[in-house]
Amino acid sequence: MKKTLILRVDREKPDEERIGLAAEIIRRGGLVAFPTETVYGLGADALNPHAVREIYLVKKRPLDNPIIVHVADKSDVYRLAKNVPKQAEMLMDFFWPGPLTLVLEASDIVPRITTGGLSTVAIRMPKHKVALALIKASGTPVAAPSANLAGKPSPTMVEHVIQDLYGRIDAILDAGPTRIGVESTVLDLTGEVPQILRPGGITYEDLKRVLGRVSIHPSALAKSKIYVKHARSPGMKYRHYAPKAEVILVEGETDLIVEKIRELAKQYVKAGKKVGILATDENVGKYEVGAVKSLGSRKDLSTAAKNLFRLLREFDEEKVDLIIAEGLPQKGLGLAIMNRLRKAAGYNIITVG
Questions:
Q1: Which residue of 54, 74, 172, 220 is 20 to 30 Å from 22, comparing CA positions?
Q2: Rounded CA separation 230/11 (Å)
Q3: Is the separation of the CB atoms in 348 and 247 below 8 Å?
Q4: Using one digit for the tens of pLDDT, what is the confidence trace for 217-231?
């Protein structure tokens, strides 16, 4: 078991000495968890195949699940990618730093273990002063999937990282809760039409306004498991974001969703199950049984996105047997939230109406 350093840093004015200590760990091939605006990431030198392999081992992550490479300077993109199209430059100008990952053709300097064995590389520039300071001080692009055990809800608070990875990694930079709460949008620019592989913090509507034409990969919209031979993005192939408890997702018209969840909750409680209900502010008072938690208002999906993974982990801490979740509209951030909920449920979905 490793001794994991926990280094508290101010999110606005990160301490140079502590950042320098974490950067030295990255440079020598170690692993450092750090905050981004989306979730906490588990960082290693993206160009060091031995360090990246440690990420896979520590997370228990399948080797064919690619890892996003984080940069602090746009010029790094031209080192990491063979071909940077005009669309990529336009998107970087519009959305970087921010929660948008671009999939491009990988250059020869990127180890294939970083790309999950693919010829493409996923790159983004995080919008978080601690993350940017760490990458700059490390002097190398930083490969960083979410800082959790593979398959579990992503970490939006340092406590989540400690629960999953304490004693397994070298250091954790603690700068408090993350702002967005769901991972970055992953956009593939290697085809004729830009394609969203994973919805996230930058919405389909945002991208359409800039690009005009954007498609969405079927797996991002799927209500049942779709076979994906080669995952070009994290979140495409394997079960993700799942708590220990079974999850049932109820989708459809809001009033009918509430009616169905009330019915299911009573049924499972009567059968002796400890039930958690993942509700919204508008409906939280309508459930008579079960441990009820609200994501926030249906009118403010940014709050729902921020709360999602934290609440799934809270249900686990309370040892519920079953979580029944309200479906949300798939507009704006709703597309990313529903993508995560469907995967967390293992596509155990009930559609009403």
A1: 74
A2: 36
A3: yes
A4: 998 888 877 656 666
**How many C-alpha atoms does 278 have within 13 Å on its Cβ side?**
34
HSE-CB for 347 with a 13 A CA cutoff? 10
Three-state secondary-structure class, residue 314: helix
Of 275, 272, 273, 282, which Cα lies nearest the Cα of 261? 275
Structure tokens at 38: 């989306």
Question: CA torsion angle for 271, 274, 277, 283 (degrees, to 10)?
Answer: 70
Distance CA 309, CA 271 (A): 27
pTM, two decimal places: 0.94
Residue from 35, 59, 29, 2 nearest 134 by CA? 35
DSSP 52: H
Element at 137 (helix H, strand E) = helix 129-138
Please say whether the beta carbons of 189 and 40 come within 8 A: no
pLDDT tens string 178-208: 999 999 999 999 999 999 999 999 999 999 9
Residue 154: count of CB within 10 angstroms of its CB: 26
Pick from 144, 77, 125: nearest CA to 104: 77
Q: What is the pLDDT of residue 227?
A: 58
Write a three-state SS string for 230-295.
Answer: CCCCCCCCCCCCCCCCEEEEEEECHHHHHHHHHHHHHHHHHCCCCEEEEECCCCHHHCCCCEEEEC
Q: Classify the C-alpha dihedral 202-203-207-209 as positive or negative.
A: negative
Per-residue pLDDT averaged across 130-138, rounded?
Answer: 98
Instruction: Please measure the distance between the N-terminal and C-terminal CA atoms of the chain and give it in whole angstroms.
Output: 52
What three-state secondary structure class fits 73?
coil
